[in-house]
């Protein structure tokens, strides 16, 4: 299991669920104890989260949770969909070299293996996230358009915009796991379209693919709102 990927996913999940308040200091040692990890993967995850626009670094070097809105997330995911749609169309129009096809098929096979069990553990989530990042990177690199690649890099600095940032992340809901399996079937269809040289279909599939991230975002925020509504009642019961 990729420990750094696991820690990163758990921290993203905690931020999305509102476990940390905007402006809250994220201390390495406290996070390491909470997640049962060493400080090294936590430190690496914090660097990635800063690059993804989820946390800021203060003048004193402290990591602080950044405030973001659902609209910011939705807009960033929508932009990624159109950028990746352009990349997929370019790959289909240029043709898929044998090496690229092998790389994409390896990602598909790994995703199939990871999603085969009826339930998914944290190792499967972390492994799938790493595979998903490789898959999207292969398509973007193969587009050959440097301006497009720079645009994706800039968009990835926005909250929850990167390809694996809106995976369900250890949810117990079977609905979320079904969405992951559906997203991976889209990977299969996208590779088929690119290999067949069907540019318009590949572009449409890539744009549609990001709707899974939009659904995951909406479900996560709905659960967060439900939890926040329950907390006052829980405090009242506990406090007497």
TrEMBL record:
This is GntR family transcriptional regulator. Residues 1-68 form the HTH gntR-type domain. GO terms for molecular function: DNA binding; DNA-binding transcription factor activity. It holds the Pfam family GntR. It comes from the Bacteria. Signal peptide: none annotated. Keywords: DNA-binding, Transcription, Transcription regulation.
């Amino acid at each position: 299991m990729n420990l750094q990927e696991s820690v990163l996913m758990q921290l993203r999940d905690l931020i999305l669920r509102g476990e940390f308040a905007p402006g809250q200091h994220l201390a390495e040692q406290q996070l390491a104890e909470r997640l049962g990890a060493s400080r090294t993967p936590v430190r690496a995850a914090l660097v990635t989260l800063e690059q993804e626009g989820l946390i800021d670094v203060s003048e004193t070097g402290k990591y602080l949770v950044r405030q973001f809105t659902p609209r910011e997330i939705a807009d960033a995911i929508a932009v990624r969909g159109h950028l990746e749609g352009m990349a997929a169309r370019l790959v289909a129009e240029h043709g898929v070299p044998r090496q690229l096809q092998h790389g994409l098929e390896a990602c598909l096979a790994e995703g199939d293996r990871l999603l085969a069990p009826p339930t998914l553990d944290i190792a499967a989530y972390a492994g799938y996230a790493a595979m998903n990042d490789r898959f999207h990177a292969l398509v973007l690199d193969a587009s050959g358009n440097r301006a497009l690649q720079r645009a994706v890099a800039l968009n990835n600095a926005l909250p929850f915009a990167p390809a694996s940032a809106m995976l369900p992340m250890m949810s117990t809901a079977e609905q979320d796991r079904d969405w992951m399996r559906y997203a991976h079937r889209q990977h299969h269809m996208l590779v088929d379209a690119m290999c067949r040289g069907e540019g318009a279909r590949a572009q449409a599939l890539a744009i549609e693919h990001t709707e899974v991230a939009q659904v995951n975002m909406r479900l996560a925020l709905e659960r967060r709102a439900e939890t926040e509504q329950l907390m006052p009642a829980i405090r009242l019961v506990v406090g007497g």
